[in-house]
Specification:
The structure is a homotrimer of 136-residue chains.
Chain A (H helix, E strand, L loop, with lengths): L3 E4 L14 E4 L2 E7 L18 H18 L7 E8 L5 H13 L9 E6 L8 E8 L2
Chain lengths: 136, 136, 136
């Protein structure tokens, strides 16, 4: 059987349940839903950046990237990004942030596909993002 | 590195942010979340079909198919379809439309898996659909 | 073209529309959104376990596993689990159930990635789960 590998960036808090921040099996790498938690501090509970949408969104994308990198991947490998917002009124601003963020990433491949939907998230969280990558 | 290819059907409006309507990397093809926008008109903003569920759902499926085809794929290649509705009261009608639509597609392979959940969408949109396909 | 195979465990009710409970194409296996329906009874409509979160969650995970097994896969093959809850107040209890369930599964590989979001589901359903696996 193809081995499955999990990875947790040093900046990340331990997942709150029996799941992995990122796994790779075969040529598929999946990043779990990331939120805008600041880098983990020993002995401290996870703390979201923000509370504004800008800070949380950029921290969330940073957290997704950290998992990709820990798994030997980059944004160029990502085929799908799922963005979960809590408020349709945040769409335009999130898009501006998203565009600005990716403009600075120096991608050499076309951008990933994306789906954005509006859901409930735990109190204090405005955005969650996960990503599917294909390696090799 | 495996190259990533993006595709945009001629009927499609430009994505509202730095994402692709469809991408392929290796044998994986991902279609971004599609809504019921009518074929793009030069100089016009995206306009949803409808406003009824029937018209929007069929236009949305047409838009997903256009991305699949632009990427050299068909419904037979799709393994997962995610359907986002805004109202649990739309489930039965959406299923009728979905069944009718696929009955006319002449599939030669079994239908894809599917998850349907109820979320918020931008005003005027009743349905969003994305799809994951495996090629080769 | 790579063939697509669909599978339906004997315990499962017929899907309410033209989709498959599970499909495999190439090395990708996708399990459709499963809810906590009890094993199908001839001539009876689908009936959810429960109504409590504990019973529904465990039945839902059992149903996902049944599809994986019918497709020749196991939890060890799963790279992504998507959990849909209806209430953020259910997160802690779902995590406890999730941890307990997987502790008993005897996984030999690291756990899958996961995203949990809060959506609407049909009346009476508190949880839905789908899963993406990589075989071979």
């Amino acid at each position: 059987m193809t081995k499955k590998t999990a990875f947790t960036p040093a900046t990340h808090t331990t997942p709150p349940a029996a799941f992995s921040h990122g796994v790779r099996k075969g040529n598929i790498l999946q990043v779990a839903g990331q939120v805008g938690f600041l880098p983990a501090q020993e002995g401290q509970p996870p703390t979201p950046a923000g509370p504004d949408l800008r800070t949380q969104t950029l921290q969330t994308l940073t957290n997704v990237k950290a998992v990709l990198q820990e798994g030997g991947a980059s944004w160029d490998d990502v085929v799908m990004i799922r963005v979960y917002l809590t408020d349709t009124g945040h769409f335009a601003e999130m898009n501006d942030l998203y565009n600005g963020y990716f403009a600075e990433q120096g991608l050499t491949e076309p951008p990933a596909a994306r789906t954005t939907v509006y859901v409930g998230l735990p109190a204090g969280l405005l955005v969650e993002v996960d990503a599917l990558a294909v390696l090799g």
